[in-house]
Hints:
Layout: E1 20-24, H1 27-31, E2 38-44, E3 50-57, H2 61-82
Antiparallel strand pairs: 1-2, 2-3
Amino acid sequence: MGRDGTVCSILDQPIPLDRLVLKNIDPLNSAGCGLHNVFLVIHQNRYQQCIGIFTLQAPSDPVKRTWLLHIETAVTGYRNILDPPQPLLGRFAVNESSEI
């Protein structure tokens, strides 16, 4: 139960951040369906096959941008933990040794 008295039921497992893809739907395309401030959350399996698509609608454009920013920040942070960026080795290219 939430602080304000709301009750929520969890129907499915959460989407892992390393298998989540966000797609912004621009107003031109979403208005044709009667939806505004819409974006997609796509759940992929480990083979990058789509196993779920969720259409989310925000109450306003600033709220939509905030949601997208926070979700993308979480996804990027998690991916950097799984596969940290490699440090640059300076400005010079590193050649593999032919003596190995």
